[in-house]
Amino acid sequence: MNIAVAQSGGPTCAINASLVGVFKESLKEPDIDAIFGSVNGIEGLIQNHMIDLKTLIFTNDDMELLRQTPSTVLGSCRYKLPDWHEDASVYEQILKTLEQRQIGAFFYIGGNDSMDTVQKLSAFLAERGSDIRIIGIPKTIDNDLCVTDHTPGFGSAAKYVAATLHEIIRDSSVYSIPSVTIVEIMGRHAGWLTASSAVLHQLGEAAPHLIYVPESDFSLDKFFRDVRQEMAKHKAVIVAVSEGIEVPEGVQSGVVDNFGHKYLSGIGSYLERAVREEIGCKVRSIELNVMQRCSSHLCSRTDIDESEAIGAAGVRCALRGETGKVMVFRRLNDMPYTVTIETAEAALCANREKLLPKEYINAAGNNITDEALRYFMPLIQGELTIQMHHGVPAHFMIQESLLK
């Protein structure tokens, strides 16, 4: 049989490593012939826009280069499948592509919304009596996928956030005048990534002095009190804040994607203006934006290795005849760090969010506990030897004409 693999949702540093895991494991299987890449996620199956990956990836060096390349080499999408009971037309088109290409297994690398696609498509195919298997491979820097201990992509993003804040701390400390620096970090409803900035406390840093996540209540009055208290102790106060904390209407655009998620940004600049008006000190805001998910030069080796491993495990799962499953990590131990890869029903992950546990947030709601550090620290460990080209990291790229 042939197989197909696609990537969906927001890019990460590790999503291509999972693609390598699927590709490399499939090469070991004599029953697998062509390995198709679906261009722009599920849209590639709908439009029958596929690339034979064996015509692009030839050597171990190619796979190693792809492993270190950020973002989705096959392109991505945010396409929400309708309920197939109400409208099966798009499902019929997907099935036509799968059957025409003789695809016996499809692997979808993505987050919460992508697992919705896995669930719906596998249910439709089962209803039609098809034995084509559909397997979800997790990814998201938000780390908010249910069931799994953590998600591929999160460890590298957390490492970038921590390293960047470490440098911001050094930069902000050089002047004699008091200052506040507000760093806006991704996280819609779940504060995992913002909370991970607390790993700097493990290094003896007092900063970030304040950390605000969507799971705790936020008010401007309390924020001002917190900032003033920290300014009494520190010349340069560093604040890490999630983009998803509760703010007044109009701070964010209100525009939503196909899944109904708001596009968020602007909390950092909003708080900068508020501090300038209320406290009157030197203040600046920094929005880390997409760098959190594409800075592969500072990726976590643990993250990249695990991402490849979970992609490979997905292939083995499909070959066992399973479908409608998502591959997940189960942590066995923090020290020494040990995880296993297991399966879960896609329905347990689709359209659900795993929030930061209450015990990871301090009583004041403005910082992160030591218990959280035991969770975060193993995920940011290790470095890759990055291949360089003319002084900058080299990337694996597919010819643009093939992606159109």
Distance between the termini: 26 Å
Order of helices and strands: EHEHEHHEHEHEHEHEHEHHEEHEEH
| Count of alpha and pi helical runs | 13
| Main pleated-sheet profile | 7 strands, mixed
Derived structural class: alpha/beta
What's the short version?
This protein is an alpha/beta fold and 404 residues long.
Could you describe the 3D structure shown?
The protein starts with a strand and ends with a helix. The protein is α/β, with parallel strands linked by helices. The chain has 13 helices and 13 strands. It has two domains: 2-142 and 296-352 and 381-403, Rossmann fold; 154-294, Phosphofructokinase domain (Rossmann fold), CATH 3.40.50. The protein is elongated and about 70 Å long. Helix 1 (15-27) packs antiparallel against helix 3 (60-67) and helix 1 packs across helix 11. The strands form three sheets. It has a seven-stranded mixed β-sheet, with helices on both faces. A four-stranded parallel β-sheet has the order 7-8-6-9, with helices on both faces. The chain has a two-stranded antiparallel ribbon with strand order 12-13.
List the main descriptive attributes of the protein structure presented here:
alpha/beta; Rossmann fold; 2 domains; 4-stranded parallel β-sheet
